[in-house]
Amino acid sequence: MISAPSRQRTRATALVGAITALLLLPGLTSVGASAEPAPPIRFRPTELPLGAEPAPAWVASAHGDQFNDELRRAGEEPISLAMRGAAPLAVREARAGWLVDYVVWGRPVLAPHRLVLVRRDGTKRVVAQRTDPVQVVSGDGTSYVTKREVLDRRQRVTATVLSTVRIDDGRVSDQLRLTGPDTIRVRFMSGFVLVDRVAPATRGGDRRVTTIEWRPASGKVTTRWRRTAHRTDLPGIGRVGSREIVVPDRRKGQGQTVADLASHRSLWRLRVGERAMRFGRGKLLTLTDKAGPNDVRTLRVRTARTGRLLATYRGTIFDSYVRWESSRKFVVMAADGLEPYDGPGGGSTWANPSLVRCSVGAGGCERVDAEFDYTSISVAPGTTY
Prior knowledge:
Elements: H1 4-23, E1 29-30, E2 41-42, E3 58-62, E4 65-72, E5 79-80, E6 86-94, E7 97-104, E8 113-119, E9 124-131, E10 134-137, E11 143-151, E12 157-166, E13 172-179, E14 183-189, E15 193-198, E16 207-215, E17 220-229, E18 244-249, E19 255-260, E20 266-269, E21 274-280, E22 283-288, E23 297-303, E24 309-324, E25 329-335, E26 337-340, E27 348-351, E28 354-359, E29 365-367, E30 379-380
Parallel strand pairs: 1-20, 2-24, 6-30
Antiparallel strand pairs: 3-4, 4-5, 6-7, 7-8, 8-9, 10-11, 11-12, 12-13, 14-15, 15-16, 16-17, 18-19, 19-20, 21-22, 22-23, 23-24, 24-25, 25-28, 26-27, 28-29
Protein name: MucB/RseB N-terminal domain-containing protein
Organism: Nocardioides endophyticus
């Protein structure tokens, strides 16, 4: 026989369990009340221990000569990107090495560029003597997507042609023609190509954005999401992962929700004042919208599907570079704080900006040993993130 107090405790326990189960139902998850796994890790780059060079390659000028860029890798000899009559414009990773987009002297600025594969042993192979601008490289590093705008006599866009091209032989495997004046943004390529169609702005500045999924193997095109982009949208709106998209919600006009791209089901909500920064490796980096003294912000690492908090960092962190080196290590740009700017107009600038590598879980953060120049060419991964 159960006593009255015991029955009350049993009912209370059952009620708590029911509420907990309800909160865990899909679409109702909110991260506002989630407990942080550990206190925030606070850092200033110059106070961090010096870590290893970055895992991906990076581009630096050889001997200060901007026309003799080198591709550098940890523990390897630099690879010269110099090419007679041309200069590297963009570098992207591929399975067999790096795709380098060269602007060729003597051609009009908007003319097709030369695309070259730089192999890991330093040898080069021309993939295409004339190519339209490369948008992304596939996740498996074997193909890429180009974009060409079709113009009328008045130089107005009437259509956009996307092409998927194989890196091994430079052949076009499929094309997609999107008619109309919409601006086309290729988000990533991983088994399918995710594309945004952005309609011309209305008088109020709003734009209609349609996210479509194109499967080159079958030619199938599916509309995944439709939304209206407002001029007042906060940074982070429209970020996409492999299966997720960040959309606005009505909480104080500043809320952001992570939803499933295919089903449109809401997965979880960010805290008010927290905005999406980058998806990657099944996770989402978020950054607080408002900064404290010295432009200090809070960076959080959350799981992409549930919003579960994995780690928290505090520092002068800015959304200019994010790179996942593994499932638990990522690199961001940070600074010691702000310092007075002596140039025209005065103001302030970042003090001692540096790449910082952080580990989710044990390990904390370390300063990355790499030459970094804001004017240099960066090496982009195969897909956006």
